[in-house]
Structure formats: structure tokens, C-alpha cells
Write a structure and sequence with these properties.
The complex is a heterodimer. Chain A is mostly helical. Helix content of chain A is about 50%, strand content about 10%. The relative contact order of chain A is 0.10. Chain B is an alpha/beta fold. The two termini of chain B are about 30 Å apart. The chains are: A mainly alpha, B alpha/beta. Chains A and B meet through helix 1, strand 1 and helix 2 of A and helix 2, strand 5, strand 6, helix 4 and strand 8 of B.
């Protein structure tokens, strides 16, 4: 059933303007037909004037195609590994379904994929999408003034809270997506490059064909930025638990207590924890916390 | 108010990713760069590192694509705050965005959609431009967009609408002569009539670019050199508006920096002819 709102006959108020824009936006955001055309029931002739060469519908179709192609291109650029895992056809269908369910609500296309991983049912594909979204965050989220190891020495662990940099993204995965992406880049550096050229060409299809296998494996991963380059870093489960607990606002003592509650008591945890914090501080992962005490 | 320093800026080109390395390494002579504001409205990382390096060497003017001054909905406060932070960083002498709409009810098209040309819409849009300019504390120039469709509800021509908006908002115009040409071909009006009708004293910047002609429509693709009909309109624009900051847009199939810059510098011929006249 067609439930579209009729466009106003005259635009003499902001309410009229909103009604017209709502009608046109709804028409543009309707999924295109199989031949990338505008659906016939959008009522273009009510608000778009034809000219001697194009009907109202054909004129509106130009904008509808621009809308879909622009957004699909954006996902195509931002999710090369997901594209490699799913293959072109399934990836394209996923993106169309996703954009239909989740139209962009941000002024920046950078946020277009923010809901993609939670939209995906397949666990493999979902893990890949989570890592690629984390890469988007790590690329241009803030790097606040880092706390150094000297800033932590002598502090009372039961009171010390540390913030995690916004450009540091911890993830628990059931697949070795980090190794998959690294191998994919090694085996074919064209994957990212070809994606930036907007439309799928022969080189991209070759890249997909050569994609490595995505192995099932429990991984505690941090996607982070250092000197404006993106990196993956795997952590031990206990280290990951401490880091995420600190990110959640726990004190250092509580974070360690939580992380080691079921850990092997025979291990030299104090030395291990010192080494982790030295490493993380050198990478600049900590900043002043923005969360209040939990 | 329209920008006052525009006439001394000369000829600029759009700062684009494929040219970053060349510009940072070779530091070519270029009067100024135009950046897409939204590409740098981020909290950190490589985009801001590149921008800061460019700002050490060059004057930068901001050009936006997402203020959507013609939206029925209010201005996006999050967008404006980030934009203001960037304005402080770049010290842009003015900033521009498009006379268009792009989102409604929280759903964003990421396109520069055409306005219905009515007096009510002109008043609404002008009020939003004033709000934006007051908040950003920098002069605003609004750019005429290219379009492929016209609303049945239109009550005036595009150039009458543009004039109505900028006079009411007391702002500048970023006159895109390629967009005038593209729209004139798609809607069948005389582009010279458009040029003659706009308030020339408000033109703070001019855009030139290439386009693509298909069977039934001309598309604003920015992927070619500037074609002769657009140069002819540019020449007339300079004759009418005087020496005006001019920028070449090249956004797809981008050739080398030197090729883009050489194309932009062809505008000098018209600027010199105007100066001698």
C-alpha cells in the first residue's frame, strides 16, 4: 500500500516546506528497482515539473540514483574486508538492506556504518564489520593529552581511574579479523586502493578472489592509532579485561581485581601488569577519565 | 555582510587527498586552497595533521557541503559547533556553503537538493543564514547549486530566489558559473540573464569546473577541464563582478596537481583582461 504524504500545492510556510522535503526525501530513499530506477509509485509528477526531454519521474530518478550510489560507494570504500568476506553480490544486497533499514542520520558519511555490525546476522561478517567500524573510529577520533607511566607511579590504586583514548577501540572477536585484514592487505594492496575509486572494476574482483580465509579464533583485540597510523594489537584476556574495566570507569585496583578473579594464581601477575602498563603508557592509550566513578 | 577581502586572494584550487603528498613535499606556489569543511570536522588523526601543515604555508578558505541552509528543520547545533572550531583553526576569511537542502526529519540525503523558489522559503532560508553567520562569527557566501529538477511550486526564477535570499540575509554569493551553465542546459534558461541579474557586489568568490553531457541531461561531475561555454560565462562574471577570488573544482578522475593548477591559472587571462579594461 502506498502511504506517501501528498506534497503541498503551494509552499507558503515552513510547514509546507517540511512537507515537500519529507515527500521528496521519502521518494529518494525508497530502494531502487532492479534496474536502478525510481519506483513508479512515488508520485514525482505531483511536485517535480517535467521538461521537454525528461518526465517528472525521470528527473527525480537522477537524485534517487545519486542518493543510492553515493551511499553504497561510501560503504564500499569503508568495508573492503567485509566485501571480501561476503563477495560483491551479497555485500551489495546487505548494504541496500542496511540503508533501507538505517538511513543516514548524521551530517557526515563517516558515520554511515555505525549500525552496520549490529544489523548483520552472520557472526563472521559481523566480526569483520565491527573491526572495520573500529578502524573508522581509530582513524579520526580524538587523541587527548596522554598520561605517561610517570603520571601513574605512586598513585593509590584504589583511587586511581584512567580514561581510555577515544581513538583506542577494544574488541572481543570470535574470528581472527586482524590477521585476515593484514593478510588481505599483504596479498593485494589494491583492495583499499580500488575501493577508493568508487565503482567495482576488474582489479577489485581479482582482489576479492585472492582474499585469504577468515579463521575462527577467540581474539582480544585493540584497534588503535599511533603517529596517525592504524594498528591492531592483540592482548591477553586478563590484560584486555583490565583495559576495558578501566575504560568503563573502574579504579585500577577494582579493574585488576575483576580481571584476575579467575586467573591462574601461580602466574607472576605484578610483573606482568607492570609490563602491560609500561607498554600501554608508551603507546599513549591513557588519558584523564571523562567518566565519573562507577 | 559579503566578504571584503575576496578581491585580493587570486586563484585557488580545491585541496584534495591525491595531492596531499605533492603539496606537503614540493610546496608549490598557489594563491590559496579551498577545503571541504566537513572533511576536517573531526577530533583528531591524519586529516588535522595535514591541515595544520597546509595552514603553515597557505591561506585556506572553507567550503561546506552539509550546513543545508535550505532545510525546513533548524540548523544542526552539533555541526555548527564543529564548524566553528574549524573556523578558529583555519582563520578562514569567509566560509561558503550551498543554497540547498539535504536532510529532513533527521534523515540525511548527503546531496545538494534544489530549493522550491518561493518568497516564504527565501525568508526562511535567509533567517537561517543570519543565524549561522551570527554563531560562526564569519561572513558567509552561499553557492548556487546545479540542478536536474524543478518544483511545480516555484514562484520565481532561481536568480530571483538567490537575490532575495542574499539581500535578506545580507550575505555574500559564491557564484558557481559551471552550475549556472549546467542548470541552464537542464532547465532551458539563458545563463547570461542569470549572470546579469544577481547582485554583483555580493559575489565574494567564483567557482569554475567541468561537467558531463549525457543524452538528456548535463551532470555537474567536476571531472573534466573547464569547457569553453563555462569560460565564456566566467569572463562575463569577471566583467560584471570585477577581480574576484576564483577557485577550480576538480573532484573526480583527479589529474596531477600541476595539471589542475595549470587549468585554474587559465582564469588569469580573464582577470588580467578585466584589470587592463
Amino acid at each position: 500500500m502506498n502511504t506517501r504524504t501528498p506534497s503541498p500545492g503551494r509552499i507558503s510556510s515552513t510547514a509546507d516546506l517540511r512537507a515537500l522535503q519529507s515527500t521528496m526525501a521519502a521518494a529518494l530513499m525508497q530502494p531502487l528497482t532492479e534496474r536502478d530506477g525510481l519506483r513508479s509509485d512515488v508520485g514525482a509528477e505531483e511536485f517535480i515539473a517535467p521538461n521537454s526531454r525528461l518526465t517528472s519521474s525521470q528527473r527525480l530518478e537522477i537524485y534517487a540514483r545519486q542518493y543510492w550510489f553515493r551511499l553504497l560507494d561510501c560503504l564500499y570504500d569503508d568495508y573492503p574486508a567485509l566485501r571480501a568476506v561476503l563477495g560483491q553480490r551479497r555485500f551489495h544486497q546487505l548494504c541496500r538492506d542496511y540503508l533501507t533499514a538505517h538511513p543516514s542520520t548524521s551530517w557526515t558519511l563517516r558515520n554511515l556504518g555505525s549500525q552496520l555490525s549490529s544489523f548483520i546476522q552472520d557472526p563472521r561478517a559481523r566480526d569483520v564489520a565491527r573491526v572495520e567500524w573500529a578502524q573508522t573510529l581509530a582513524f579520526d577520533e580524538a587523541l587527548r593529552k596522554p598520561l605517561r607511566i610517570d603520571d601513574l607511579l605512586g598513585a593509590d590504586p584504589s583511587a586511581l581511574r584512567l580514561g581510555l583514548q577515544p581513538c583506542v577501540v577494544p574488541l572481543v572477536l570470535d574470528h581472527a579479523v586482524d590477521r585476515f585484514i593484514t593478510a588481505m592487505k599483504k596479498s593485494d594492496a589494491e583492495v583499499r586502493g580500488a575501493a577508493s575509486q568508487a565503482h567495482a572494476g576488474a582489479s577489485t574482483r581479482r582482489s576479492v578472489a585472492r582474499a585469504p580465509r577468515l579463521k575462527r579464533e577467540r581474539v582480544h583485540l585493540v584497534v588503535h592509532r599511533h603517529d596517525n597510523r592504524l594498528y591492531f594489537k592483540r592482548l591477553a584476556p586478563e590484560a584486555f579485561a583490565i583495559l576495558t574495566a578501566l575504560g568503563d570507569g573502574l579504579t585500577l585496583a577494582d579493574a585488576i581485581g575483576l580481571a584476575l578473579a579467575t586467573a591462574d594464581p601461580s602466574a607472576d601477575w605484578p610483573a606482568q601488569i607492570r609490563a602491560w602498563f609500561t607498554d600501554w603508557s608508551a603507546l599513549g592509550w591513557f588519558c584523564k577519565p571523562t567518566l565519573g566513578p562507577r | 555582510m559579503p566578504p571584503t577581502s575576496a578581491h585580493s586572494l587570486g586563484i585557488g584550487i580545491g585541496l584534495r587527498v591525491p595531492h596531499y603528498r605533492h603539496i606537503l613535499d614540493e610546496k608549490p606556489v598557489c594563491d590559496w586552497f579551498e577545503i571541504i569543511s566537513e572533511n576536517f570536522m573531526v577530533d583528531g588523526g591524519r586529516p588535522l595533521e595535514v591541515l595544520d601543515s597546509i595552514l603553515e604555508q597557505y591561506r585556506v578558505v572553507q567550503h561546506g557541503v552539509a550546513m543545508y541552509l535550505g532545510n525546513a528543520d533548524p540548523l544542526d547545533r552539533d555541526h555548527l559547533k564543529k564548524l566553528k572550531r574549524l573556523v578558529k583553526r583555519t582563520k578562514t576569511p569567509w566560509l561558503s556553503d550551498h543554497l540547498c537542502w539535504g536532510s529532513v526529519g533527521g534523515r540525511c540525503s548527503h546531496d545538494l537538493l534544489p530549493m522550491p523558489y518561493t518568497m516564504s522559503v527565501a525568508k526562511h532560508t535567509a533567517a537561517k543564514i543570519r543565524q549561522a553567520s551570527d554563531f560562526l562569527e564569519v561572513p558567509i557566501c552561499v553557492e548556487n547549486v546545479s540542478s536536474y529538477a524543478e518544483f511545480r511550486q516555484n514562484e520565481m526564477t532561481e536568480w530571483e530566489f538567490l537575490t532575495e535570499v542574499v539581500e535578506r540575509a545580507d550575505c555574500g554569493i559564491l557564484l558557481d558559473v559551471n552550475n549556472i551553465y549546467v542548470s541552464s542546459e537542464n532547465h532551458g534558461f539563458d545563463p547570461h540573464e542569470y549572470l546579469r541579474a544577481v547582485p554583483h557586489q555580493r559575489v565574494g568568490q567564483i567557482h569554475i569546473a567541468g561537467h558531463t553531457r549525457l543524452d538528456h541531461v548535463v551532470l555537474d561531475t567536476h571531472d573534466h577541464p573547464v569547457p569553453d561555454p563555462v569560460w565564456a560565462l566566467y569572463a562575463e562574471a569577471i566583467r560584471l563582478c570585477g577581480d574576484t577570488a576564483t577557485l577550480l573544482e576538480w573532484d573526480d578522475r583527479i589529474p596531477s596537481f600541476d595539471e589542475v593548477h595549470a587549468e585554474a591559472l587559465k582564469a588569469n587571462r580573464y582577470l588580467h583582461e578585466h584589470a587592463h579594461a
